[in-house]
Amino acid sequence: MWASQSLLSGCNSCICMEGLTGEQRLAFQEAFSLFDKNGDGCITMEELAAVTRSLGLDPSDQELNDMMSEVDMDGNGIIDFQEFQSLIARKMKDGDGDEELKEAFEVLDKDQNGFISPNELRTVMINLGEKMTDQEVEQMIREADTDGDGLVNYDEFVLMMKNAERKISG
């Protein structure tokens, strides 16, 4: 099952872009662009399926429909940027993301050895369509790697994600 199954119920959690810092706005836009493969400002069912499958997940058509309908508040069959922001706001507000963090870590930890290596991170980013230099991948690992072993364990991953969440939520 995909990590973001329990997504939205209502738009009370919408974030106004005016209330975000430039860094927060950029983080939302970068996350959105990972899904919006053709850059048209909308996430289609096909793009949602492609991203989940590129992460090694295999949701059924029904699961994809459920995910889409939870986020697609106006029912037009696509997820626009405002709906995507609402999703992020809801996830940040819920604060109970332990299971989702475990699932995300498992997706990144391809060999399931308890660590995310630079090669595993690079593979996932390539699958998402993000071209990164070796230096960029190594920098991402260094930022999360608090014990200096060149790998990211689960505790380091959780700490990195919580710090990123704090940056985004202000």
UniProtKB/TrEMBL annotation:
<keyword id="KW-0106">Calcium</keyword>
<dbReference type="InterPro" id="IPR018247">
    <property type="entry name" value="EF_Hand_1_Ca_BS"/>
</dbReference>
<feature type="domain" description="EF-hand">
    <location>
        <begin position="96"/>
        <end position="131"/>
    </location>
</feature>
<dbReference type="GO" id="GO:0016460">
    <property type="term" value="C:myosin II complex"/>
</dbReference>
<keyword id="KW-0479">Metal-binding</keyword>
<dbReference type="GO" id="GO:0005509">
    <property type="term" value="F:calcium ion binding"/>
</dbReference>
<feature type="domain" description="EF-hand">
    <location>
        <begin position="132"/>
        <end position="167"/>
    </location>
</feature>
<feature type="domain" description="EF-hand">
    <location>
        <begin position="59"/>
        <end position="94"/>
    </location>
</feature>
<dbReference type="InterPro" id="IPR050230">
    <property type="entry name" value="CALM/Myosin/TropC-like"/>
</dbReference>
<dbReference type="InterPro" id="IPR002048">
    <property type="entry name" value="EF_hand_dom"/>
</dbReference>
<dbReference type="InterPro" id="IPR011992">
    <property type="entry name" value="EF-hand-dom_pair"/>
</dbReference>
<feature type="domain" description="EF-hand">
    <location>
        <begin position="23"/>
        <end position="58"/>
    </location>
</feature>
<keyword id="KW-0488">Methylation</keyword>
<dbReference type="Pfam" id="PF13499">
    <property type="entry name" value="EF-hand_7"/>
</dbReference>
<protein>
    <recommendedName>
        <fullName>EF-hand domain-containing protein</fullName>
    </recommendedName>
</protein>
<keyword id="KW-0677">Repeat</keyword>
<comment type="similarity">
    <text>Belongs to the calmodulin family.</text>
</comment>
